[in-house]
Amino acid sequence: MDKSSAKTLIRTTVVELMETTDIPDITVTAVCKRSNLSRTTFYRYYPSVDAVVKEMGDDLLASIRRTQEIDRRTQGLSGMRKTGTSDLIRAQILYEYGPFIRVVTGVHGDPSFAYKAVAVIRERLQEEVGSLGLSQLDQDVLVEFMLAGFFRCINYWLAEHPDITPEEAYACQVSVSEALAAMLKGTQS
């Protein structure tokens, strides 16, 4: 078995075990038994189950950061940016990592992952909201409001409606963004 296939099988197996078992309680033996891999193969790629979970989380957050860099390069920060290609790419990334996101943020997951994910998104939102001319308190409240909404929408999609494709999720995001913009424009008139 090649490296990519072995790592994918190990990662998939760890995610499956995280559905019913706390991360510290998942053993290398359990991963190997479920995946039909030897311990030697497991240790060739990972020193521990924790390392598997960390690598998946780090890969996911690095992918999200790359899309944020696309936002920074392609759109100025003269106010809130419009929904664009990077949002579709983010939806595709979230969909691909959906099983991992569901379990890592679930009852058997890793609470520190949620903090890391929030920090990544918060940084970008603060940049965007900072250009709106609001007081610092209003900026802080708006960022927290948006974070809560983003993470609840992601959870709703991936946990309750995983049948929704990334393209459908993106189309919904565009519709909601347009509706919010229209609503806000109406309150400013």
Would you write up a description of this structure?
- There is one protein chain.
- With 189 residues, this protein is an all-alpha fold.
- The protein has helices spanning 3-18, 28-35, 39-45, 49-74, 85-96, 98-104, 111-129, 136-160, 166-188.
- Helix 1 (3-18) packs across helix 4 (49-74) and helix 5 crosses helix 9.
List keywords for this structure.
mainly alpha
Architecture blueprint of SSEs:
Blueprint: H1 3-18, H2 28-35, H3 39-45, H4 49-74, H5 85-96, H6 98-104, H7 111-129, H8 136-160, H9 166-188
Helix pairs in contact: 1-2, 1-4, 4-5, 4-7, 5-9, 7-8
Largest sheet: none
Q: Provide a count of the helices.
A: 9
Beta-strand percentage?
Answer: under 5%
What is the element string, with H for helices and E for strands?
A: HHHHHHHHH
Secondary structure tally: strands: 0
Query: Into which percent range does the helicity of residues fall?
Result: over 70%
Shape: elongated
Mean pLDDT: 88
Summarize the structure.
This protein has 189 residues and is mainly alpha-helical.
